[in-house]
């Protein structure tokens, strides 16, 4: 039973090394091969695969058949902050990265009583 705790410690070390490697790569970049990673980290393939599987389940890595293991695309995840100057609105705090937006649909029509009241415009 002494091997189980040692395996868990080794897997945690491999995980930490992989997380550091992921941090050095942009989203969608190919990681070195399993063979190279095993040599670099001095671990067996099953230990490496267990750590990679765990990170893939967490969304940090993506495995593609025939290509290898890639870093997952970077996601912006942060809580909305209440806006100080506007009643019930929220703002997105500034973060680093590239932000994009696009108009999916555009339509011009009368607001109607409910929407005009919410927008504080005339119904026409």
Helices and strands, with pairings:
Elements: H1 3-23, H2 34-41, H3 45-57, E1 61-64, E2 68-71, E3 81-82, E4 90-91, H4 112-119
Task: For this entry, give a set of tags.
Arc Repressor Mutant, subunit A, two-stranded antiparallel sheet
Q: How would you sum up this structure, described in words?
A:
The chain has 124 residues and is mainly α. It has a domain at 3-71: Arc Repressor Mutant, subunit A (Orthogonal Bundle), CATH 1.10.10. It is built from four helices and four strands; from the N terminus they run αααββββα. It has helices at 3-23, 34-41, 45-57, 112-119, and strands spanning 61-64, 68-71, 81-82, 90-91. The longest helix is centred in the N-terminal third of the chain and has 21 residues, at 3-23. The chain is elongated and about 70 Å long.
Summarize the structure.
By secondary structure, the protein is mostly helical. Helix content is 40%, strand content 10%.
Q: Roughly how many Å is the radius of gyration? A: 24 Å
The biggest beta sheet is recorded as: 2 strands, antiparallel
Spatial arrangement of strands, main beta sheet: 1-2
Overall pLDDT level: 80
Give the CATH H-level superfamily of one domain: Winged helix-like DNA-binding domain superfamily/Winged helix DNA-binding domain
Form type: elongated
